[in-house]
TrEMBL record:
Residues 4-170 form the Tetrapyrrole methylase domain. This is Tetrapyrrole methylase domain-containing protein. It comes from the Bacteria. Pfam families: TP_methylase. InterPro entries: 4pyrrol_Mease, 4pyrrol_Methylase_sf, 4pyrrole_Mease_sub1. It comes from Salinimonas iocasae. Coiled coil: none annotated. Transmembrane segments: none annotated. Gene3D superfamilies: Cobalt-precorrin-4 Transmethylase, Domain 1. GO terms for molecular function: methyltransferase activity.
Length: 262
């Protein structure tokens, strides 16, 4: 009986892979991967029945078509009765549609399917930039989704925008959005933040010998900033937390009452 497990090798080649993910990779009948080429070279040494899904991406090709083709490739092997492992860089379930959809489809067809977590860009970001998401709260959004839907930003907490290099690409087929599309993003963000609000462009390295990028610029300069496929935009809080006096009073009353009983 075929099966599917989607695993994440983390962000840094050879340094982030969990023992469970490694075991799935080593014991699989066949591996499909969507990772950085250096990560894929390293993965091939763990299991040589290795197939990269990266060539399915194409210039001006709608990413939805690519994603469907990736699912079809993995599902064909599952239906042939193979133990299939899909390796998706970082965490396979974080800002990654293919693993979620492939697992849902495999389960719908009666196959065993599961996901193993990996270290995502989000995890590296907290470590490298010294951010604790629990300090003020942290909102994560895909940049274009933030742009085309009416979303409420909590400016008292961190806001993290993913795929910022694809900001406003509604064709889903570009490798980089245009400066006109980026200007729309900056204009929208300036409804929430002042133009000189400091934002950070973050990129964690693929190799352990490299360092991360944390470039802080004023929001208004984002249109001209150098972005890549792997850039994540970090927007720190712009406003102080405002106390909710009504709820605080309610909790104080409960606390006093409980205290009376004791
Ligand atoms: C399709 S998502 C994949 C995320 C991945 N599954 C993970 O667990 O981090 C691609 C987006 O993740 C973020 N990302 C990917 N690689 C990154 C890196 N090296 N440093 C910072 N952010 C990265 C960027 O926002 C990028 O546009």
């Amino acid at each position: 009986m075929g099966s599917l497990v989607c695993v994440g090798p983390g962000m840094i080649v050879g340094a982030h892979l969990s023992a469970r993910c490694r075991s799935h990779i080593v014991n699989a009948d066949i591996i499909f991967s969507s990772c950085h080429p250096l990560m894929e070279d390293w993965l091939k040494a763990l299991n040589n029945n290795f197939h990269s899904l990266q060539p399915l991406y194409g210039e001006n090709k709608n990413r939805r078509i690519t994603y469907q083709q990736m699912i079809t490739r993995m599902m064909s092997a599952v239906r042939e009765g193979k133990r299939v492992v899909g390796v998706f860089y970082g965490h396979p379930g974080v800002f990654a549609q293919v693993p979620h959809q492939a697992i849902a489809q495999a389960r719908e067809e009666g196959f065993t399917a599961s996901m193993e977590p990996g270290i995502s860009a989000e995890d590296c970001l907290y470590a490298d930039l010294g951010i604790d998401p629990g300090a003020y709260g942290c909102q994560h959004m895909e940049t274009t989704q933030f742009m085309i839907y009416q979303r409420v930003l909590d400016t008292c907490g961190y806001v993290i925008l993913w795929q910022v290099a694809l900001a406003g690409d509604i064709s889903l087929s570009k490798r980089m959005s245009s400066s006109a599309e980026r200007k729309v993003l900056v204009k929208l963000l300036m409804h929430f933040y002042p133009p000189d609000h400091s934002v950070t462009l973050y990129e964690c390295p693929t190799l352990i010998t490299d360092t991360f990028r944390a470039e802080t610029i004023p929001l208004e300069k984002l249109t001209e900033a150098k972005l890549s496929q792997v850039t994540t935009l970090v927007i720190p809080p712009a406003n102080r937390l405002i106390k909710n006096d009504v709820v605080s009073a309610e909790l104080a009353a409960i606390s006093k009452h409980t205290g009376d009983k004791i």
